[in-house]
């Protein structure tokens, strides 16, 4: 039998799989392609892969036989049972040290489970976030691999060569143990929901508040793309707003205002609740999509619930637009602050060692949230990998302070107009809560004790004969006497 020539195998010839194979082929690797419906293998070889080094396989066994050791096989199939099915099919053909990589959008608890199961059998497992959609897969995605650490040296070269490159650095590094790769990808998607919601709110304020036309709004976004907001999402928003239908009118107002979602934003919000971390902006972004989907109900409500009288804007438009840029920037700082706080807490809870500067670098290119801003986050964590939150970093601390007056003016004006800004507003509420030495949770604790005997702790220095620091209030004469 001839020597195996494949550097890596890939199962799943839908959009992502085909493009990633072509990308890896361009980088000089020999890829062996397989798909459940094997006619797709033949079609791929005869068309997109024609004239390349790409090899095909018509069974899992043939795929494995064509791979060099240790075998590396990427699954790019629909997340869920299909991943487990392929793992079961592959196992009997693999040897100790071989590596299965799940590049789909799997939920991280599944990745933790699969890592444990396969490691117990001597195999290695990697759950890798792959971001950037079709275009990213073809020309350089952001890759976020995590799982069995022993797999990294074997896949590093292929992964880093295949990933997007920013200033000569690959948007791919080892994320951490177990489900860390898919966890970080999940948070990335949650942050993407947040960024998109913030941009949508800015559009709403410019459209319904200032009454600007889509072309004017596109010009504003184009300008913003030259400053602190320089990012893929701002850039494509300007292009989208400029786009005209056949009748010459902007297309965007003709699109039904009901947002879809595939669930990764919801997973992030649930993970935040589970970890007890206030990731409020992503939560609001998910809820805003939920509210958008209540279209029929909103139509009925719009007929019977009145907001404030619409008043034309009388202030300085240029100043207002500059304020809005700052509001968007500051809210974005809060969203990333919250996202990194969540990853930090989860790493602590699950015993992962996450490289936060590395994560920011991985997101700088190849993915939907790519931006210049992520370079600043990488720099902040490079300076201090133990940073509790970005607001303690000098650069972001100054940026948030600078943005603060405009940020407040925008939210105040939106409230007066009756234009909802759930993401802008929750970001500011978090900022004000986070910077408050005292919050009214003392009253909550008293209420909890009053109705449920939950006890409370006493502020240091406020101890007296009844109140002793750190003691259970039920042990004192004060016990229940306030009822
Ligand atoms: P899909 O998510 O549409 O999956 C299609 C592939 O899954 C095909 O190869 C199909 O085989 C296979 N498959 C299905 Br469906 N059910 C199967 C089963 N029960 N057993 C075995 N194979 C099964 O493809 P995609 O859009 O390329 O995405 C691949 C992965 O990457 C997904 O997890 C997705 O969430 C993730 N992802 C997608 C994007 C994107 O922009 N599309 C971006 C980032 C990540 P068949 O041909 O025989 O039906």
UniProtKB/TrEMBL annotation:
Reaction(s) catalysed by this chain, per the record, are:
6-phospho-D-gluconate + NADP(+) = D-ribulose 5-phosphate + CO2 + NADPH
Which domain of life does the UniProt lineage start with? Answer: Eukaryota
Q: Which UniProt keywords apply?
A: Gluconate utilization, NADP, Oxidoreductase, Pentose shunt
Q: What is its EC number?
A: 1.1.1.44
Briefly, what is this protein's role? Catalyzes the oxidative decarboxylation of 6-phosphogluconate to ribulose 5-phosphate and CO(2), with concomitant reduction of NADP to NADPH.
Subunit and interaction comment: Homodimer.
The similarity annotation says: Belongs to the 6-phosphogluconate dehydrogenase family.
Query: Tell me, what's a Pfam family for it?
Result: 6PGD
Involved pathway(s)? Carbohydrate degradation; pentose phosphate pathway; D-ribulose 5-phosphate from D-glucose 6-phosphate (oxidative stage): step 3/3
Full protein name: 6-phosphogluconate dehydrogenase, decarboxylating
Matches recorded under InterPro entries: 6-PGluconate_DH-like_C_sf, 6PGD_dom2, 6PGDH_C, 6PGDH_Gnd/GntZ, 6PGDH_NADP-bd, 6PGdom_BS, NAD(P)-bd_dom_sf, Pgluconate_DH
Keyword Hydrolase appears in the UniProt entry: no
Which positions fall inside the 6-phosphogluconate dehydrogenase C-terminal domain? 181-462
